[in-house]
């Protein structure tokens, strides 16, 4: 019988191993990252979590991870080639409890993410998210999303079904959130680099983060079917960043939904046949993006924060860049980004404010973000109008 991989388990990093002979193995798994230890809902134990993850990997003679390793190493990998598999619980997220899975093949240590749905919310959306990631990676030539390698469901010893999928691990990328910098008592983007040391971004780096986030979301927007990646939230850690030579590089790690901007529209049956409608929808998408780009929670879990107004110019720049990456469509007379620039040039300040106001009126009134958006909407519309005027003036000169 060929040898099978050895398994080990740990919390957050390999210096915190976990096994069935210590207390952590039997402790309940919190459902939220800000678990208080008192009143939060409790689901399964850490041990049940690790054994369910192992069962998923072992299923069908290690088929999913063997195929994933074959794709990563660009050669055939058999289960007997895998010497060791480490499963590390990374965090207690709002939707999933992701594990970092490290497989040792020869001299290579290859990392993957295993997204495990434990909460009812996560269980409800995880299969759709897997399909969305696969669809977008198949349909778009560029990729700012993780590749996915396989979906499945395992049952714990307590008869709890846990759906999960294996995906690409973005090495060196970290979650980030707005935090208070004690050196000058101002709010800045704080990168959670736990492999090194956590650090604040400079003003220029923060601008680049917002630019790239807008570019990614614009790139994946379908101008003919109006499909968009939504919802997404900075507070949920949907974007991650890596800093190379002081320059940020962003990836988007979650696509919980990919639906039409307009309610009750089936994007598979209703493709836009009107140039004006395409540009109107694109404007609404941009206005919504410019608002949501400024929302975060302090340190990811605290009070809702409204980002500095400089994020607006970066969002515009990134949005247009994302459109420029898209192929031209027959219904538009020119490239998508150039058509949209012209459309912006005929929009008045009143148009920007009225459309923004109408859009915010459609926000969920029960969402804690809605009062914050309404509080800052006048300021945002004014900043956005000035930003558009400056940008369009620069094009004319």
Describe the structure.
The chain is of the alpha+beta class and 397 residues long. It has 2 domains: 163 residues, no CATH class; 223 residues, no CATH class. The chain contains 9 helices and 18 strands. The strands form 5 sheets. A 7-stranded mixed β-sheet has the order 2-1-5-6-7-9-8, sandwiched between helices. A 5-stranded antiparallel β-sheet has the order 12-11-10-14-15, with helices on one face.
List segments where confidence is low: pLDDT < 50 over at least 5 consecutive residues: 34-42
Biggest sheet record:
7 strands, mixed
Tell me the series of helices and strands, N- to C-terminal. EEHEEHEEEHEEEEEHEEEEHEEHHHH
**What class, by secondary structure content?**
alpha+beta
- Return the domain count: 2
Shape: globular
Q: Considering DSSP H and I runs of 4 or more, what fraction of the residues is helical?
A: 25-40%
The quaternary structure here is: single chain
Strands, total number: 18
Strand order of the largest sheet: 2-1-5-6-7-9-8
Q: Provide the gyration radius in Å.
A: 23 Å
Question: Strand-residue fraction?
Answer: 15-25%
Arithmetic mean pLDDT: 92
Counted by DSSP, the helix tally is 9
Ends: how far apart?
74 Å
